[in-house]
Amino acid sequence: MEDMGFLRMLMQLTWVGVLLSEILAATEVAAQLPRPNCSDRCGDVQIPFPFGITEGCYLNKDFGLKCNHSSGVLTTGNLIVTNISIREGQMDILMYVAFQCFNQSGELQDSNRPSLTVPTYTISNTQNVFVAVGCDTYAHLTGFQNSLPFTMGCISFCQNITNVVGQSCSGIGCCQVEIPPGLKNFTLKAYSYYSHKAIWSFNPCSYAFVVKKDRFSFSSGYLSSLKDNKTLPMVLDWAIGNETCDKSNSVCGRNSECYEPDSGYGYRCRCEAGYDGNPYLPHGCQDIKQCEDHKLNQCKIPKTCVDREGNYTCSCPKWYRGDGRKDGTGCELKLILVSVLAIGLGIGFIVVPVCSSLWLYLIVRQRKLIKRRERFFQQNGGLYLSQILSRQENSAGTTTIFSAEELKKASKNYDEKLIIGEGGFGTVYKGFLSDNRIVAIKKSKVVDKNQIEQFINEVVILSQINHRNVVKLLGCCLETEVPLLVYEFISNGTLFQYIHDESTGCTVSWETRLRIATEAAEALSYLHSTASPPIIHRDVKPSNILLDASYTAKVSDFGASRLVPLDKAQVATIVQGTLGYLDPEYLQTSRFTEKSDVYSFGVVLVELLTGKTALQSFEMPEEETSLTMYFLSSLKEDKLFDVLEKHLVNEGNTVQLGKVANLAKRCLSVRGEDRPTMNEVATELEDLRKTVKHSCVNTDSMS
């Protein structure tokens, strides 16, 4: 009897141990929100990793927050944080309101221009709206989208407070607009046209703010009292870094996966199906005991549920079959063999005709697809191209004719994640051919059917260009309605990104800039002088100069190029190109010459010298809006070194900088005949390269 009592007590202790281990496991999952030994909350706000309030508790300084423990207020910069969501990748904050307030005489009395400049955060376009309030108001939201400057605005007017209708926010006293995705490093600004003089009694201020949807309802009372609302709720999206999942060593922990948010910046982590917790910690995602949760347990008979690592299984009673799940096949009673055969025969009489019809339909559909591709092939000049290629079998650089199916497979059915460029010319996809070559596949605009022969001749000639500084055209596909062009893939982005990106632009040395300029000039000189027939690029700009793995310049995008007949010096065409780079003589005459490319290249030289974009923000002084005008004016006033990028001057290459500046000035001459040729530009730059210092002063290493 005593032995039986001892066994009973031992079993009870065992069950207590099991229960305690389960409780500890559940507690461990909940405790995985912060890093070990780090505070998990500030006031009522929970602080999950990668965020933290003390050094060593956050991923990097962008995720460092501050906590006022006496008031229980959590802040990022000077903004109050009210919630952080790991699952959604979002942060709720209280954002300041921008305003301009005037006295009764129309004099500016008070103003505020709040901003947020943390690269980790973007404005959530799904959770917020941009609002302007006032009867004499226009508002701006300026920031960056895809590393490029961006501005949007909203205008609101009314003459009497009786004009304001209910809660409407459609331009009378209140204006509301949607926000595009991917905006970061932004500033809010509110302005007035007439200093609120006529409406001061009921509306002395202009307001602008970003607010969480459904958290702001406009009323006429806000025209006079909104200044009292210092902050309003707003939602930020956050992500890790700027790299995509396939290019980064992600911090995602075990049992988690990396994914890229819709904002287009960085990546996030999430627990795999069947796991829950914090995916940013090494062991943050823990197995969910799905059988114990009646919401997750989808077994028809809950007691048959068996937990597995990251999943669970269900079973059926004896004489039944199936997966036992409510969301699956469930459990069905097993039938005797005769019944099964009878049902099978009955189904067979139905399935066979259906399958036959489906088979015939697929054959007809496939034939239509083949005929459609053949029609496009002929329509796009495929037969003419085949005749040309048959005469070039033994020549180097022969054009390849790709099939539509081959390029569809290479681009994973034109997956949006493989888009590497978009614009007026069309869309460019990264592709992987079966022979392991990486290519760029360009979906061009529709080719004029009356110029098919010219289009094919241009494709053949461009594919035969073999210059180390020109992007190689490998071939084309003519089986689609819009012809596809296939180029070699260049891995390091564009010159525009290289010199204007905030994180890298200011560190690019003068020696590197001069080398890239020389290589691009040599490529254009080759197109103008050596190619037969000569080729005018017609859209020379930093975003059309690509950089390969060793940062060698590659001139690209011949979508606007024209072949120059040997007996003609000019090409008359519809005015097109990119503002800021267009030849003024071309704008007046609509005649494009090789000297027009020289002008555009002159603008590129100025960007390399100054680190500024061709067109500046309209909010800057008028004389600085056009980079070329600002540069030429500074050169005339002997203020060259005031506009050059500071670190280039500090490198000690002032003589070369002055010579390149004078070369750019000649390229930007108003009359084309006063400009040098691209061959002369390339020769002069190459001579300057030979004199550039080959050692750069590094002040950090000398200190």
Automatic annotation (TrEMBL):
Residues in Protein kinase domain copies: 414-697
Transmembrane segments: 335-364
Main location: membrane
GO molecular-function term, one example from the UniProt record: polysaccharide binding
Keywords linked to the UniProt accession: ATP-binding, Disulfide bond, EGF-like domain, Glycoprotein, Kinase, Membrane, Nucleotide-binding, Serine/threonine-protein kinase, Signal, Transferase, Transmembrane, Transmembrane helix
Binding annotation for ATP: 443
Protein name: Protein kinase domain-containing protein
Catalytic activity: L-seryl-[protein] + ATP = O-phospho-L-seryl-[protein] + ADP + H(+); L-threonyl-[protein] + ATP = O-phospho-L-threonyl-[protein] + ADP + H(+)
Cystine bridges: 252-269
A single Gene Ontology CC term: plasma membrane
GO biological process: cell surface receptor signaling pathway
Signal peptide segment: 1-25
Record localization: Membrane
Gene3D superfamilies referenced in this protein's UniProt entry, alphabetically: Laminin (2.10.25.10), Phosphorylase Kinase, domain 1 (3.30.200.20), Transferase(Phosphotransferase) domain 1 (1.10.510.10)
Domain EGF-like: 241-286, 287-332
SMART domains found in the cross-reference section: EGF (SM00181), S_TKc (SM00220)
Membrane topology qualifier: Single-pass type I membrane protein
